[in-house]
Fold each of these.
Amino acid sequence: MLLTIVNVVSAGWVEGLGNADVKGTKKKHRIEYRYGKCTLHLYSSGAITCTGAKTEEESIDTLMRGGYSLTGHRVRNARVVNVVAKGHLGDGIHLSTLYDVLSENDFDVRYEPEMFCAVVIRNEWATSIVFESGSCMVMGAKSVEDVWRGVGEWLDMAGVDTGRIPPSDPLPLKIPHDKVMVELR
């Protein structure tokens, strides 16, 4: 499975903002400011977030540089707070079988097809959502490495060969096209 990072969100704090004159588009409870390919959100509390980055470095750098450009003050306590990725497992995922395999092995997994058409898998690193089409979303990770850890754990349990590729490389999924999740062990 190849996972693509779609968003890295970072957050920080701007001290001494007070009634400083800041540039940007004023929204109801925040100021929105485009900086490069990212968007900064500055709140009246002094909290500032950066969305739209594709790497952790880009997110933190944009938060620090863009925050200073926006306010004239340094951003403190900058950190990555969410990494979102998407991927595809293959066609014809049998969600009930995936749910059964993971729940039998004490994973925090939810599947209520009447309420939501996907299996939701939570672990200490991330939350994964797997759809019957084979699409997969991963969110809530605090780093790109946590995305790989979170997905790798349940892929291993479901019997998917990850090839033991390091977290910095794309994670392939080796499933023959004629196989479906129900046949994996």
Amino acid sequence: MPPLQAEMWAYGVLLVVLVAAAIDDVCTRKIHNWITYPAVLAGLIGHCCFGGFDLHRQPLGLSGSLIGLLVGFGPMFIAWRAGGVGGGDAKLMAAVGALAGWEFTLASLFYGFAIAGVMAVFVMLRHRIMRRTLGRVWRFVMQLMMRTKPGDPGQADSPTIALGLALAIGATLELVDIAFGGPVTSRLFGAGGW
């Protein structure tokens, strides 16, 4: 069975989770556990049932689902501990990884952070704080390079973006890319890819 058909159940669950998480993040500025925890469990249990335990089987399998979970959650957990993202954002990427695997999750993170960057620029322009924000970021980076403990570049009055929305859009773009056999997926993970 081709990979798209074999993983269709996971992509369907993922699409529902992404829509729910995006709406939740925009409306409440949080992504609640009732969205992410069942999605992680669905990914792990579903891939175990449909793909077994083998890493190299198609469909994904439990081991592939666990690796995807770690690839999605690991870097986001570090960013959450550093104060850069919310815990719901980290758990959303864990759910994406458990449902779709590590390759999908890496591409989703790439798309999601690119979209978040564009959203941040729009917010800075809208609030006319581009120069102030870039100055704070520059000081933060310089303090990191001098190996001193940097202060938080954000301030209490700093506007924020809905990172969960950006990550959900990024994962949706990857779903569309896979559904249409897009150029990004085939270049990154095709015959000459990883």
Amino acid sequence: MNHCWRLLSKGCLVILMGISLISCQQITPSKIHYSYDNGPEIDTSYIAIFPFEKKSAFRKPAQLTRTDLIEIDKILLKFAEDYNKHMLSFISPKDDKSNYLIDLKDYKRQYTPTTNSKGEKEVLIYCICNNSNANWKKERIVVRDGGKCYFMVKVNLVTKGFESAVNGNA
């Protein structure tokens, strides 16, 4: 009987040690992703994809690849860098720079990928401040003012160029 008790207690000890090791593992919540038309995973916490729906002889809908998303980020960073350098030449050193400069991590984005008449993939990107209450994931952004809180960038993924417009203040 004493021998059985020792085996049972050793078995319980092994089980308890196993449970404690398993429970000590760090569990990190996974980010929610969705796939867009069998394309790359899109981080929906800050990007929404809107398909091109207009009838046009010059533009056609396009899909984005993982490589496209990486290139879009590079081009957007170049846009923000250029914009911020330009703004720094106008503002006073006393001014709060955060009121004038663009930090891309502070924006939600809407992407509309298209192919232009030359067959080049272009993406129209609308950016909106994170603090906006707009239903940005389901409705396209349409604003007339708002300053740096709303801006548009059209990127060409072939030429790596961009065109941009930052809204004025009312």
